[in-house]
Amino acid sequence: MDHHRSRRPFSGSHHRQSVYTRDRNDRKGRCDNSLLRPRNHHQWQSGSTPEQNPLTSQTLSTRKELYERDFPLYKQPVEVGCFSLDAQRRFFNDGRQMRYYVEPDKNPNFDLRDGYEDRYVKRDESVKEKLDHILRWILANRLKLKSKASSHALDFDFVTWRGHLTKLLTTPYETRDGWLLAVTKFKDTLYISEVETEAARRDRENRPEWNHKMMYWGYKFEQYMCADNAHGLPDSSGVVNTNEAFCTVVQTRLTDHKLLFSGEVDCRDKDPSVPPPACYVELKTSAEICTPKQRSNFHRFKLLKWWAQSFLPGVPRVVAGFRDRDGTVVSVDTFPIAKVSQLIKNEPNCWKPTVCMNFTCDFLSFLKRIATEDNPSVVYLVSWEPLKDVTYSVHRDSCFSFLPLWYVEAMGSCQDSHHQP
Ligand code: 0WD
Ligand code: CA
């Protein structure tokens, strides 16, 4: 076939995954994920073939039983910087969008529906920003980021969004949504950027009106809970603009994987003596819990996502607004992340933090093993669907390439240029 012509041999004969050189785009210029089905697709059943050895296998199992071992080393995340996105989604290398947590009444009666029709500016979700904001932050802060000795490469194995890592942490327990991650090795760092799956795009484009409203409720809750400065009060008469964001950038290590990632933070405690990320507060809304069944589901499904998202950057607490069916917050509760494991421990068949972390650790090792070619235009497209193993395919100069030229050129401009495209 034509698009195998420029295929280059890989360094080892054990590379048995499919190799694509060029991808066809559909009429709208999107990458067509339906063309991703590889021909010589190897899907070894973990635990049932001699090729299950995790050190050589080209696939990775997500079965939770395989990850029930001791909790892996996860270093205390350290904030190395922050950035802001303004009402027009413009990047600023500072904390101007930081907001401050304001303690609410126990029974607040916030009307989350207020403003949906007339005071809501919604971010355009069809614009895919990929890692661009993080890359901009890296370029603006290169000097203060520790570089590897004798090179100007970053001293990180992985750069990504916190949200992508959250999806990895919850994968062994996920039964509904698969994911697609694009991975590129550039100057010894693996960059991980999400690609929207076909199913996710369909869902987004066909989202019913009630769903749009409920998404707004979450942002409206933030407005009721946050002030723009440490001594201010919330202004619920203002506009909700979801372009605006404050993002923390943290560094940490999961066993031998050095990570740099960024995540959006809702607000901070106004006490200036508590340093980030310990001062940060994650805000959530959830349906009011009225029955034991609802409580159990909350523990088994919602707390998993909340824990994974906040544990990663070291955000110590989630403040939840419980809403009735009409969108009125009837109570507010604080969930310290460190106490979540106690909350769920009497829940039969529940998720375990150690499984989430061990799977993620093994997944990152898997990426290091497969993504060997250091080239900014090569993408290892890693995909997963519930009940299946993680698989991948390789793409050169395709629509999946995501490291922008401005980043590649800026990073390549200082010595160590043998990897330049
Ligand atoms: O393009 C993409 N595929 C993604 C873009 C996926 C994930 C994130 N992003 C962007 C978001 O626009 C946002 O600026 O990255 C930033 C946040 O990154 P994150 O912290 O790594 O993402 P995550 O932990 O999934 O979400 C944190 C918050 C969400 O709060 P809740 O309480 O709902 O978890 O970021 C917001 C949201 O408030 N958020 C988004 N806002 C606009 N568009 C999006 C999104 N696609 N995803 C999360
Ligand atoms: Ca939130």
Automatic annotation (TrEMBL):
Cellular component GO terms, alphabetical: cytosol; nucleus
Ranges of compositional bias, category Polar residues: 43-59
Keywords: Hydrolase, Magnesium, Metal-binding, Nuclease, Nucleotide-binding, Nucleus, RNA-binding
Protein EC: 3.6.1.-
GO BP terms in the entry: NAD-cap decapping; nuclear-transcribed mRNA catabolic process
InterPro entries per record: RAI1 (IPR013961), RAI1-like_fam (IPR039039)
UniProt biased composition (Basic and acidic residues): 21-31
GO MF annotation list: metal ion binding; mRNA 5'-diphosphatase activity; nuclease activity; nucleotide binding; RNA binding
Compartment annotation: Nucleus
Catalytic activity: a 5'-end CoA-ribonucleoside in mRNA + H2O = 3'-dephospho-CoA + a 5'-end phospho-ribonucleoside in mRNA + H(+); a 5'-end FAD-phospho-ribonucleoside in mRNA + H2O = a 5'-end phospho-ribonucleoside in mRNA + FAD + H(+); a 5'-end NAD(+)-phospho-ribonucleoside in snoRNA + H2O = a 5'-end phospho-ribonucleoside in snoRNA + NAD(+) + H(+)
Main location as per UniProt: nucleus
Cofactor: Mg(2+)
Region (Disordered): 1-59
Cofactor annotation comment: Binds 2 magnesium ions.
Skewed-composition ranges (Basic residues): 1-17
Record's keyword annotation contains Flavoprotein: no
Domain RAI1-like intervals: 75-408
Family: Belongs to the DXO/Dom3Z family.
Free-text function comment from the UniProt entry: Decapping enzyme for NAD-capped RNAs: specifically hydrolyzes the nicotinamide adenine dinucleotide (NAD) cap from a subset of RNAs by removing the entire NAD moiety from the 5'-end of an NAD-capped RNA.
Protein known as: Decapping nuclease
Organism: Nothobranchius furzeri (Turquoise killifish)
Gene (name only): DOM3Z
